Amino acid sequence: MVVTGTGLVTPGGIGTEATWSTVCGGLSAARPDPELAGLPVAISGRVPGFAADSVPIRQPWRYDRSTLFLLAAAHEAMADAGLSSGSWDGARVALVVGSAAGGVGTLETQHRRLLSGGPTTVSPLTLTGYLPNMAAGHLALELGIRGPSLQTSTACASGATAVITAALLLTAGQCDLAMACGTDAMVTPLCAAAFAKMGALSRRTGDPARASRPFDRDRDGFVLAEGAGVLILERAEHAAARRIRTHATLAGYASTSDAHHATAPDPRGTGLRRAVTTALGAADATLADVDHINAHGTSTPLNDRAEATTIRELFTRHAPTVTSAKGCLGHTMGAAGAIEAVLTVASIVRQTVPPTANFTAPDDHTDRVDVVAGPARPQRIDLALSHSLGFGGHNTVLAFTR
C-alpha cells in the first residue's frame, strides 16, 4: 500500500505544513483554557483559529467539532492526492475513521441543556452529532463514498487501527482507494475532569508550554488536545495508473493486546514488542532496518517508561532515533495514531526527525534511547515505525518505508 495524500488539523496548525513547522520548531501548543476554568487542570491543546464556517461544507453548524476537523483534514488529503469526489467511483472508495469518543462535545452540551431546560431544549441533531459512527457517515455523505464506511475505536490507538483496517480492505479487494482517518475533540469539561481525576494530566498549569514532556525525567502527565489526521492509501499499481506521486509505502502493520490492566501499559512491553516484530515481519524487515520511531510518548510516567524500556531492549545493536509529537501537540486521543502516522510519513519524505519538545533530561529508562531534542535532525530514513498505545491494552505499530 502507498500513501498518496495526507491532511492534518492539529493544535500545531491547520494543514500538514503548519503542523510540521510547529513540531520541527519544538513549539508547544498548550495554553490556558477558559472553557476548563474551575477544573483541577485548566490547560489544553486546542486547534488555533479553527472556525466551522471555514470548512467547505453546507450547514457546518450541524456537525460536532470532531467531525468538522475530519472534514477539513479529508479535503486537504484529497487535494494532496489529486482527487475530487467527481473523479472516482464512489463504490470503490472505502472510509475508516478512528475515534475514542465520537461527538462527546455534542453529548455534553445537550446533556447540560436537558438538565437545565428540560427535554424540549435538546437538539434533534444530538444523536447524529454524537454517535461514534456518524463522523464516517457524514464524510461519506459529503464526498459520495459508497464503499465500506467504518468506525474503529481502540482508545488512543484508534487512528492507527483505522490505517490497518483501511489496508485490510484494500488487500481484500473491497476498494481501490481508502481514506484512513482519526479524529477527536475531547477537550471538554467532563473529559478533562475525568482524566484529571485519574491523574493522567500534567499539573503544570502555571507553565503550560512546558507541561507535556515525553520521556523526560520530570514528566507528570499529558496535555489534553484535539485534532484530526487523514491518510489516503492505494495499491501501488492503482497509484501508478493515476500517475500520482507517492509519499511512502505502508509496508507492514500489527495490532496486539496487553491483557494486563485497564489503563496502565504492561511495564514489560510484551504486547508492544510483539507488535513491532510482527509489523517488521510483514514488511520483510528486521530490527536492524529501523531508522526512526515516532513514539506514542504520552508524557505519563508509566507509558513512557514501558515504551522506552521496550525500545531499549529491542534495539540492542543500534539505536533508532525516537521522537514524540505530544510534547508539541499534546495528546489528541483517538486522532493521535493518524496524526502521528502522517508525521512519520512526513519524516520519510523530508528525511528529517522533529524534536521531542521539553525533553531535557533522561531518566534511568530513557538514558540509552536516542530521543531527539533541540533542533530537528536531518537523517536518512528508509524505514520508520509509528507506535500507538491505548487504554484497554491496545498496541498498534505501523511500518512505513521510502
Q: Outline of this structure?
A:
This protein has 402 residues and is an alpha/beta fold.
Supply the key terms.
single chain; 33% helix; 12 helices; globular; twelve-stranded mixed sheet; 402 residues; two-stranded antiparallel ribbon; alpha/beta
Major beta sheet summary: 12 strands, mixed
Number of beta-strand segments? 16
| Helix-strand sequence | EEHEEHEHHHEHEHEHEHEHEHHEEEEE
Tell me, briefly, the overall form. Answer: globular
What structural class should be given to the helix and strand makeup? alpha/beta
Mean pLDDT: 96
Provide the β-strand percentage band. Answer: 15-25%
Note poorly predicted spans: none
Radius of gyration computed on alpha carbons: 20 Å
Distance between the termini: 12 Å
**Tally of separate helices:** 12
| Helix content percent band | 25-40%
Describe this structure in words.
Helix 10 links the parallel strand 10 and strand 11 (321-323). The protein has twelve helices and 16 strands. The chain is of the alpha/beta class. It starts with a strand and ends with a strand. Helix 2 crosses helix 5 and helix 6 (158-171) packs across helix 12. Helices cover 33% and strands 20% of the residues.
Helix and strand topology:
Layout: E1 2-10, E2 13-14, H1 16-24, E3 31-32, E4 43-44, H2 65-80, E5 93-98, H3 104-117, H4 126-130, H5 134-143, E6 149-152, H6 158-171, E7 177-185, H7 189-198, E8 226-234, H8 236-242, E9 248-257, H9 270-282, E10 292-294, H10 301-314, E11 321-323, H11 326-329, H12 336-350, E12 352-353, E13 370-371, E14 377-378, E15 383-390, E16 394-401
Parallel strand pairs: 5-6, 5-7, 10-11, 10-15, 11-13
Antiparallel strand pairs: 1-2, 1-8, 1-9, 3-4, 7-8, 9-16, 12-14, 15-16
